[in-house]
Automatic annotation (TrEMBL):
Residues 174-420 form the Malate synthase TIM barrel domain. GO terms for cellular component: cytoplasm. Residues 22-81 form the Malate synthase N-terminal domain. This is malate synthase. It comes from Shewanella maritima. Pfam families: MS_C, MS_N, MS_TIM-barrel. The active site is at 178 (proton acceptor), 460 (proton donor). PANTHER family: MALATE SYNTHASE, MALATE SYNTHASE 1-RELATED. Its EC number is 2.3.3.9.
Amino acid sequence: MTADQLVAKYSAQTETQSSSKLAILGSHVEGQEKILNSGALALLETLCEQFAAEVPQLLEKRCHKQQRIDAGELPDYLPETRAIRDGNWSIRGIPADLQDRRVEITGPVDRKMIINALNANVKVFMADFEDSLAPSWEKVVQGQINLHDAVNGDIEFTAPNTGKHYSLNPDPAVLIARVRGLHLKEKHIEFEGEAIPGGLADFALYFYHNYRQLLAKNSGPYFYIPKLESHHEARWWAKVFAFVEERFCLQPGTIKCTCLIETLPAVFEMDEILYELRSNIVALNCGRWDYIFSYIKTLKNHPDRVLPDRQAVTMDKPFLSAYSRLLIKTCHKRGALAMGGMAAFIPAKDEATNQQVLQKVRGDKELEARNGHDGTWVAHPGLADTAMGIFNDYIGGDNTNQLHITRDVDAPIPAAELLEPCDGERTETGMRLNIRIAVQYIEAWIQGNGCVPIYGLMEDAATAEISRTSIWQWIQHEKSLSNGKLVTKDLFRQMLAEELKNVEQELGTERYQAGKFTQAAQLFEQITTSDELVDFLTLPGYELLTA
Ligand SMILES: CC(=O)SCCNC(=O)CCNC(=O)[C@H](O)C(C)(C)COP(=O)(O)OP(=O)(O)OC[C@H]1O[C@@H](n2cnc3c(N)ncnc32)[C@H](O)[C@@H]1OP(=O)(O)O
Ligand SMILES: O=CC(=O)O
Ligand SMILES: [Mg+2]
């Protein structure tokens, strides 16, 4: 039976016996029939049946590990998987259209942005259901509709305010969908009365609707997997992929994924993650913003590892440099690409400032390319040429990547280097900036906007996490600012009140009052002064977003 016949049979079966275990609770989104059809829901139901119950167990494993680290242990390479690290093995391979990923643009699954991103001067577009998306039901469903139209090549958009029309250029970038992390649920779909894992919904819907078209175009169902913390979680995804490949009569390894290494626990299991997913994985990526957040979160009880101002934590700091170099060394040894990360700068409107922005982006991308990364991320089309120029220079000639760079000079990288405390000041200016960023970001998020420009930087869920957890950590460890002020809950509350006034002045009273700043400030205050560190900002945020 061909794959097409199989899908038809699978869809027909479920057309007649509508699913009893899966319930759609979200309100109607225009066009949802295209996405939430019986075949897609049948796949989702089967995946939930097979795999959803394991997710809480995986999250529980994270907690157990964290308890040991909270009690004083430091993360390290795992003794029980030494044979995998020492073994001689490679990943299955990289399809032709994923060999050259020198510049990838990222962005939420907004219709206009999808078109702009696919038309940008980049090799890949990472369409994001994660850090840059506030996953309201409408955005999730509309995002799937948009991606389906993009894969079909008939996505179009007319801006209501300008009348400008958008459609795809002839040779669009390769599409990779980033699904939600395992901690996030999709509460508008329930399986046996329980909200389902958000990432499983994103995966099933994108896969089901697009894999045939993508394969017909000599591309494939490609995914970014975020926020993994262990090789057990990688194994879970490997089982999901293998199950779906078998179900749809696809060659093993048809689904391809790139895993973000953006948690401190995962950096010690990169070989193991590649190994678990070796049939499907093609690359790892340095998700530096979540990684910095994870460094704070994982080492939250370790007074000697408290980070300084966010601006001081740059990729040339020893712990981040070691992370980038180890990722490259590990990937290239196994035949996988080593993707760099995001410089959070975005273009400025005035030319002089923009030149400074481009200079900073150039510096950041040069460091990555020189280290041996095979490609990098940009947040905005206006940065694509700059990043492309740097990577063209380093990759050179007919090459498509830097897989030949083995970084033997770095063997081995000890755990201590990955955990090295980061020097730098904690300043009142830095703390106030963290406050203004976090409160504005939370306000945007609970209104449904997961990625916003604030003070010339792209702010998303990962960058905002650094701002809010830095203050939490400074309070908990009774740190003093460079001007001698002790960081306390009261000092934070006082600064928050003052900075809310500054934000109101910056934005104007009309915008401020029409917004949700009071709600955002309440949530921010609550999670910053709580003695328990809230795991992810987006968990209480999701309750407000979907209230
Ligand atoms: C830590 C991480 O996870 S990083 C990955 C997640 N983060 C992201 O993906 C960031 C994506 N970037 C963005 O969302 C945006 O660039 C923002 C919010 C930072 C800034 O957006 P804006 O203020 O709209 O930028 P600006 O006004 O300069 O945009 C100019 C044009 O570029 C487009 N544009 C900007 N960023 C992008 C993008 N990432 N993809 C596609 N198009 C984009 C805008 O849609 C706009 O198009 P138009 O001229 O046709 O109207
Ligand atoms: O997802 C990317 C990051 O930096 O976080
Ligand atoms: Mg991230």
